[in-house]
Give the backbone structure.
Amino acid sequence: MPSKIVDRYKRILSGEQKRFSPYEFEDAQYRKQKIQLVLRYAIENVKRWTPEQARRELSIRDVKELKLHLVREYIEPPIEAKPDDVYYMVEFAYPYLPRRSEQERVLWVYQEVLSGIRRHFPPLYFQSIKGEERAKICVDYMCSQLMKLPDISDLPRIFSKTERAYSLLKKYKLKILVDTLYFSPFDMVTEMYPHLSAPALWEDV
């Protein structure tokens, strides 16, 4: 029964048992429930945290001390999670916790790239339709918050010189978009903003 997982986890914490049986999480029907029970016991009974507090404070060190690495391997991290991030384990345990919106998650990643907290975007971050949506969020932010463009229709004029366009994309850490997703800065802008494809808008003044 899934409820017995907590007894086995207590034995692991006390040192009576080294790890869970290799077959403990084999049954997909009960796997999620078992992992949630272990995480909730560690958070509520060992750390005596609220779910909200756990999401803020749980660290990779806590995970090791609480032996939660034994269940972490069964939780698929979100694409934006860094190697030492463990907040998503708490969100897995408590699915009702409010989550960041997709835009908030993308801007969190982009701002960490800009600040140097991250050296680069996560692998495959801009692949697929979802990746194109992430790219658009980043470019919107670049234009409005970093370049301070009063009007997006100014973008073609600024990007009309390829060298200047690449220089700006490199400055704002978005050159990866034309390295992996689009053929050129022109292609990127006109794909994201189809109304900016008129040739007259791309005349360099």
